[in-house]
Amino acid sequence: MHTKPLRFIRRGEVVTLHGVEPSRTLLEVLREDLHCTGTKEGCGEGDCGACSVVVAEPNGDQLKYSTVNSCIRLAHSIDGMALWTVEDIADTEGQLHPAQEALAQCHGSQCGFCTPGFAMSLFGLYQNHTAQGTSISRSQAQHALSGNLCRCTGYRPILDAAQAMQALPPVRVDEALLLSKMELLAHIPQGLEADSSYISPKNLLTLLQARAQYPEAQLVAGCTDVGLWITKMHMQFPRVLDTTQVQELRQVEQHPQHIAIGAAVTLTDAFAALVADRPQLLSFAQRFAGLPVRNSGTLGGNVANGSPIGDSMPLLIALGAQVVLMAYRDGQLASREMPLEALYTGYRKNVMAKDEVLAWIKVPKATATERARVYKISKRFEDDISAVCLGIKLEIADGQVVQASIGAGGVAATPVRARQTEASLVGQPWTQATVTAAMQTLRAECSPISDMRASAAYRVQVLGNLLQRYWLESQGVAQLDVQNLTLEGACA
Question: What domains sit in the chain, N to C, each tagged with a CATH number?
Fold first, then answer.
């Protein structure tokens, strides 16, 4: 089986590597092939950020910069992009980049193991803000560093560095040079070779044809989960089909009644679209893994993977999302559409045929009368997997519940829609008595298990508690969100 050359731009020059197997991670290639040992392996699962690097790709006449985890990013997925490691951001004479200089000046490095990852997250933040002429707030710095863990608990000086780097002499990336080289790489023919081990189609038709031709190929859509199969379970895939470069599936389309999010849209961009329509989802979006994971992972990958603790599904179920599956059969495109919750048949199992691909997620737009909320319960506030996730959307008119949609995660083998609880609410007055009865229905409707994140009893109790929280918030009770908690208010 043939492995196509891997080509990307580093330090302004095109790097070409031959014989890179489809299952090799970017971190492995950096450390083992290119001997870039400044990039560290910490957790090997995208949780700690020690392996962070920055990639860029064209976005009109500019570059779009993204900090990503190289430990779970497949090397071939950066073909045609520009790449920076911690060894690339100082100039040729050794002058430190403002991100590095600020870390040094603010004493932001302690044991130093995590420092390369922090430096790269700061570099990505610098390119997306300071280099564009916009300032960096403390809050923005915290969100940008949400995927980086400091084992020495030195976050304050690192956050200081994020703001201090703005005052240092500016450093510019020659984007015109990089864009010209990317354009040349993009025009080098790739083709759909019969023996290709890593297939990365650029359009939907080619993707579906490849899926029909290679149904045994491992489909990846960001690889933030499949990457763990490689690093933790030591799985190898002789052929990989990557959806993330399919142009049609990288789009967010605004329609009169719904938003259509392509399956290859990153979690970062997908949640930006959802938050623009429902601003109350911002906090949840920022808690959905760390930023590097959101920059690589896709909404389609999260949905198709179908993990019972995947955070997007409870929200999307509550919002009434539909999924569109597509295939190439008998010389033409075929598609079918269904409610998102109907996609799943069991633990990480779904109704998709071997030649089908999840192409679109269609999310109804917010209405003036709805009240949509989503709650995530996890051990860590940021960068952690949920023990329980509950999405609720009610429409209440004249004091009565007229519509209810509830999605839950972490409480069954699949993400579920709580239909019995919905039925117990619709047509009832919106009162504490109605909520109390619905809490018991919700607890009885789900059958969670006990695991390392929470016991079954805890999950059942929390489910009802979250519905009670929704009720209290609807009545104007404040101080229910830890982000908004003030000591004065808590003690009043």
Answer: 1-184 (3.10.20.30), 189-366 (3.30.465.10), 370-492 (3.30.390.50)
Task: Look at residue 186 and tell me whether its pLDDT is greater than 80.
Answer: yes
CB 400 within 8 A of CB 377: no
Dihedral (C-alpha) 487, 488, 489, 491: value to the nearest 10 degrees? 80
Residue showing tokens 């090997």: 44
Residue type, 259: I
Token digits of residue 384:
């952690």
pLDDT, position 92? 87
Average pLDDT over the chain, rounded to whole? 93
Tens digit of each residue's pLDDT (9 = 90 or more) over 192-215: 555 689 999 999 999 999 999 999
Rounded Cα distance between 348 and 308, Å, is 8
Task: State yes or no: pLDDT of 487 exceeds 50.
Answer: no
Contact 480, 469 (CB under 8 A): yes
* Phi, psi torsion values for 288, nearest 5 degrees: -75, 90
What is the spatial distance between Cα 312 and Cα 266, in angstroms, rounded to a whole number?
12
Mean pLDDT of 300-318: 94
* Among 91, 103, 89, residue whose Cα is nearest residue 163: 103
